[in-house]
Amino acid sequence: MIKKITIIFVGLMIQSCLSQKSSLLNQNLKPSDVEQKEVNIYIRKIEIVNEIGDLKKIQEETLKTNIKILLENTNIFKSVNYYSEFPVPSNSILLDFKFLKYENTLKLDPLYIPLSIATLTLYIWLGGSIVNFDSKIQLEVNSFDNNRKLIKSQVFEEDNFIREYIYDPWRSRRIIPEKKTKFILNSVIQVTNS
């Protein structure tokens, strides 16, 4: 009985430890097919709705910094800054980001243990899936003119599911930041198009 409880407890602990919240973006992404805009971008607010406490603040500040650096490095916009209460030039767009859903979950593949036992670990050595990485983002981007009047508001959604194998165990850690970066950048480009 104690052995079963211990196994269940360890299994639940492993599942809890695999949940991660990453604000990592590929800040060097440069889209080739987008023309430069003579617009100043001001990042006003970034909010993650489904988080609370210190983790929320840390993630929001990290995302704010990463998005600013990303938008600067793409050279699409004339300038990218954080918003303050000071007057902004007439060719400016203020952006608010609201992450309605921001989930990154790493879960043990449900077939991993049974197939590993049934095939005497042959499943593992032949490259069977170990964990699955699931990333779900729902982002509302609002753009405002220099008088703080709403120009455009749009909700974007993306779902990514990646399997990780023994021969490439860090695959999702490379792919997901790239996909999140493209998603956020495309969202900003769509909202800033007039």
Automatic annotation (TrEMBL):
Source taxonomy: Bacteria, Pseudomonadati, Spirochaetota, Spirochaetia, Leptospirales
Protein name stated in the entry: Lipoprotein
